[in-house]
UniProtKB/TrEMBL annotation:
It comes from the Bacteria. InterPro entries: AhpC/TSA, Peroxiredoxin_AhpC-typ, Thioredoxin-like_sf, Thioredoxin_domain, Thioredoxin_ResA/DsbE_sf. Residues 4-164 form the Thioredoxin domain. This is Peroxiredoxin. Gene3D superfamilies: Glutaredoxin. Pfam families: AhpC-TSA (PF00578). CDD domains: PRX_like2 (cd02970). PROSITE patterns: THIOREDOXIN_2. Keywords: Disulfide bond, Oxidoreductase.
Amino acid sequence: MGYLKLKDKAPEFKLTQTTGETFSFDAHQKEHEAWHLIVFFRGSWCPVCQNELKELEESKGYFEDKKVHVLAIATEEVEKLKEMVSEYDLTMPVLSDSKLEALEAYGVYYHGEDAPYEDHGVHGEPAYFLIDEKGKLLYQQRQTSPFGRPSVSELRKIVKYIGKNLK
């Protein structure tokens, strides 16, 4: 599991989008000189995650005004994620990390078979990474359970605060 410090270069990942296309984070950063908020979520089956993704979608205009692109990643297979994206009309890139590549690169907790308690099988836990236009890490938060994650309004405040106070 990776360990990232603030100002570290964010790791590259190439994952499958729900559109079926391969998404390269490095290529996306070069194409869109903007900040990126990467949101790791548990899966399409998680009601808390579903609500969070809907709220992120509703806040899309706010994030766009701040020049922040939101990306969502789960360890679930593409087909299940595709159904959720369609059901909730999500327009942000939703990516499948079924091989746990981005999860490991970013040091996101994984609730595997060896976890100390049962919790809906195996899956990644929530995590948040705000990355500037140069690919440097500005903010991170990782969870070991579904609870304690920042709300979308808190994420908005974090983006605003860091943007206002950036050195």
